[in-house]
């Protein structure tokens, strides 16, 4: 219990200390107009309040990741707490803040456009394909998971196909309608359900005196389960997630002032880390250790764990509300995943999105592909999503490092976590069954060598960019030219 409580406190302290430090390093400009006003189009560029933007950002980035991921990560024991806290403060929140703020400085540009500008034009095509694939996988996965949870919640009385169809209809509307018409209006209510359910479970753990394990020298990896690099691909959204880099530009287009960025981007990642801590602690404490948790996961997956935790801690009524809160998470990330895919494709082909017809012809193929992907095995989709997710996080962190390097600021805040995860990404794909299936020792050597080469290339490119005075932001007078 002490480890759990200390970690929660550390996350909160991290927001007020390291978050403030990162904000100071970046250097906000209070007088600079944001894209929400300069590029206002009534569809994607719409000024909204800080509380509303914060809640939308939290729900955008918090899919099933901060619940299902930590539940799976709980199999590794309390070491999962360390990754959530360290990863969230020094990697995930930095990642979210930098991508959001750099996007604000560049008319709300998405990651492919930022990668093209700061990492080279070739990267625009690579990252564009990567980001769209990631978003399609996210959107598809976040159709299946809430549908299955709702099917269970309804005791099977509503056909799974009907639920899936209903979710798709909502996603289509949320993708095509102006951001303030559906997302802006529904998310505050969705957010209330999410926060109530998570806080309820957290308080329940404390009140009931749940036997949450403490960190010691003997319980870092129960049952000798391998930690590196698998833990970093199991717990993503609660610590570090490239998916967030596809979501922050949505809110960079609705943020009123740069000063609000720390609350919206850094702060909401910390909030997600707290949610992850709560569900990881619950999973560790209520099933008699990793073996009991493994049995429940094998029988019914993370959804069964969520249902059991919610009912045991909060009772029948409270448990139902908690499950609804978990259902909200993927739905409120799935809708913005498809919306982001539409915006990225439109940006890539330079198609203005003010007209409904322009949004429609981009959205139709996206949803058509997603329907096909729903026929693929969920576990296979999730493994590819996990790797693509963290690979995207690496790219986003290197974009942040390049921006800060050119600006002659402390680029290490992005480069260190980016390089660390680059090693993990390369090592994982070299060893994994979905990758090259090399022995782990060879995969580690390949990952370290590959990361070293890429970091050297980064520094060479960064020095050229600095020497050429690469512009860090779009001039205000050019905003409307590229809207």
Keywords for this entry:
mainly alpha, transmembrane, CstA, membrane, cell membrane, Carbon starvation protein A, globular, 483 residues, Amino acid/polyamine transporter I
What's this, in brief?
Helix 2 runs parallel beside helix 6. This protein has helices spanning 2-16, 18-26, 35-38, 50-61, 65-73, 79-105, 111-119, 121-153, 160-176, 183-207, 231-234, 243-252, 261-285, 290-348, 356-373, 378-406, 412-431, 440-467.
Describe the structure.
This protein is an all-alpha fold. The protein has one domain (2-376): Amino acid/polyamine transporter I. Helices cover 73% and strands 0% of the residues. The chain contains 18 helices and no strands. The N and C termini lie far apart (51 Å).
Q: How far do the termini sit from each other?
A: 51 Å
> Biggest sheet: strands, sense, closure?
none
In CATH terms, the superfamily is: Amino acid/polyamine transporter I
Q: What amount of the residues lies in strands?
A: under 5%
User: Over the alpha carbons, how many angstroms does the gyration radius reach?
Assistant: 21 Å
Number of strands: 0
Q: CATH topology, what is it called?
A: Amino acid/polyamine transporter I
The amount of helix comes to over 70%
N to C succession of SSEs:
HHHHHHHHHHHHHHHHHH
Task: Calculate the mean pLDDT score and round it.
Answer: 89
CATH class: Mainly Alpha
Shape: globular
Low-confidence stretches: none
Would you tell me the structural class of the helices and strands? mainly alpha
């Amino acid at each position: 219990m002490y480890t759990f409580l200390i970690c929660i406190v550390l996350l909160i302290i991290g927001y007020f200390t390291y978050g403030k430090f990162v904000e100071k390093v970046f250097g906000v400009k209070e007088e600079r107009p944001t894209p929400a006003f300069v590029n206002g189009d009534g569809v994607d560029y719409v000024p909204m309040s800080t509380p509303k933007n914060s809640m939308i950002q939290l729900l955008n980035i918090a899919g099933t990741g901060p619940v299902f991921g930590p539940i799976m990560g709980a199999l590794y024991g309390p070491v999962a707490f360390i990754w959530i806290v360290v990863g969230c403060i020094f990697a995930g929140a930095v990642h979210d803040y930098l991508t959001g703020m750099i996007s604000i400085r560049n008319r709300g540009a998405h990651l492919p456009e930022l990668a093209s500008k700061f990492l080279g034009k070739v990267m625009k095509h690579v990252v564009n394909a990567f980001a769209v694939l990631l978003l399609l996988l996210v959107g598809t996965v976040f159709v299946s998971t809430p549908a299955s949870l709702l099917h269970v919640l309804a005791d099977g009385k509503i056909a799974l196909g009907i639920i899936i169809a209903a979710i798709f209809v909502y996603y289509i509307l949320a993708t095509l309608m102006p951001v303030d018409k559906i997302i802006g209006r529904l998310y505050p209510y969705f957010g209330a359900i999410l926060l109530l359910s998570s806080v309820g479970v957290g308080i329940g753990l404390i009140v009931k005196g749940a036997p949450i394990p403490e960190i010691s020298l003997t319980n870092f990896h129960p049952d000798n389960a391998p930690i590196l690099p698998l833990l970093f691909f199991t717990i993503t959204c609660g610590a570090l997630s490239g998916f967030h880099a596809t979501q922050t530009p949505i809110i960079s287009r609705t943020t009123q002032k740069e000063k609000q960025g720390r609350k919206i981007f850094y702060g909401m990642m910390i909030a997600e880390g707290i949610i992850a801590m709560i569900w990881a602690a619950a999973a560790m404490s209520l099933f008699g250790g990793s073996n009991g948790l493994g049995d429940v996961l094998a029988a019914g997956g993370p959804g069964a764990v969520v249902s059991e935790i919610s009912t045991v801690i909060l009772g029948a009524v409270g448990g139902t509300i908690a499950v609804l809160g978990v259902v909200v998470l993927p739905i409120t990330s799935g809708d913005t995943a498809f919306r982001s895919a539409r915006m990225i494709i439109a940006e890539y082909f330079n198609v203005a999105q003010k007209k409904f017809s322009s949004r429609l012809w981009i959205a139709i193929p996206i949803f058509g592909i997603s329907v096909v992907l729903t026929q693929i095995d969920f576990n296979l989709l999730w493994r590819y999503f996990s790797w693509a997710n963290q690979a995207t996080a690496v790219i986003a962190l290197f974009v942040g490092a390049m921006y800060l390097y050119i600006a002659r600021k402390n680029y290490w805040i992005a480069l260190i976590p980016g390089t660390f995860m680059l090693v993990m990404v390369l090592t994982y794909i070299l060893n994994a069954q979905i990758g090259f299936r090399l022995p782990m020792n060879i995969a580690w050597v390949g990952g370290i060598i590959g990361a070293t080469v890429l970091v050297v290339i980064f520094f060479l490119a960064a020095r050229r960019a600095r020497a050429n005075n690469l512009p860090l932001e779009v001039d205000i007078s050019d905003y409307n030219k590229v809207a």
